[in-house]
Amino acid sequence: MGEYILQTNNLCKNFRGQCAVNDISITVKTNSIYGLLGPNGAGKSTTLKMITGILRATSGQILFDGHPWTRKDLLHIGALIESPPLYGNLTAAQNLKVHTTILNLPDSRIREVLEIVDLTTTGKKRAGQFSMGMKQRLGIAIALLNQPRLLILDEPTNGLDPIGIQELRELIRSFPAQGITVILSSHILHEVEQIADHIGIISNGVLGYHKAIYPGDDLEKLFMEVVTRNRQEVTR
Asked: Does the keyword Ribonucleoprotein apply (predicted)?
């Protein structure tokens, strides 16, 4: 296992001639939490979709554990991008059973991931009746089924109340000790500041900051400087 589980080199994505992501180069240390920050529409989700194979990069390179990314690496990547892929008429266990069947995984994984996300007591309650926080945790449980080495979470606290945010924050913090590296995207600075080891700040498709984060860093100031600078460069 290498020092870096993921690297992107000059990653670009164009949609009908318009650049959505421009020369994104990041390095994510193994067993760390990497926060990808940026305002809405900055290019965060597009970047994560390229890493997970949902979108094909226009140019650039993705390395997984030191080698060029291939679709086989998806066996080691779990992701929750946008809304959790849930069947509202099924219980938590039944939702997971659908995915263990597709992935040809043992049913023992269902109980294991339910314990990880603290959803073992939902019983016969259907997912459609879950709170937003419970739905997010079930979505993460689905992403954990294949025992990924890299977990990608796109705006996971969207729509959560303060209790749900706190519960999810504690869950995410627990993953590196279990051998799971996390990439977390968000536009909420305070949330990322509390859990990330390293951050990247993206605005207008350009990565303007990429470093470790330390206590006392003024993340809001950094964020505003990057966003303002990138907007000025775009309008020139």
From this structure: no
- Rounded-to-integer distance, Cα 84 and Cα 135, Å: 7
Nearest alpha carbon to residue 13 among 38, 53, 50, 39? 50
Distance in angstroms (rounded) separating the CA atoms of residues 64 and 23: 18
CA–CA dist 197, 180 (Å, integer): 14
- The three-class DSSP label of residue 35 is strand
pLDDT in tens, 13-62: 999 888 999 999 999 999 999 999 998 888 999 999 999 999 999 999 99
Confidence of residue 229 (pLDDT cuts 50, 70, 90): confident
List the end-to-end C-alpha distance of the chain, in Å, as a whole number: 44
Cα atoms found within 13 Å of the Cα of residue 67, Cβ hemisphere only: 5
pLDDT tens digits, 160-206: 888 888 888 999 999 999 999 999 998 888 888 889 999 999 999 99
Task: Of 200, 206, 197, 199, give the one whose Cα is nearest residue 177.
Answer: 197
Residue 23: CA count within 13 A, CB half-sphere:
3
Q: Residue 107 is encoded by which pair of tokens? A: 């049913």
Instruction: Of 147, 145, 71, give the one whose Cα is nearest residue 107.
Output: 145
* Per-residue pLDDT tens digits for 152-162: 999 888 878 88
CA distance 81 to 183: 11
Contact in structure between 180 and 214 (CB atoms under 8 Å): no
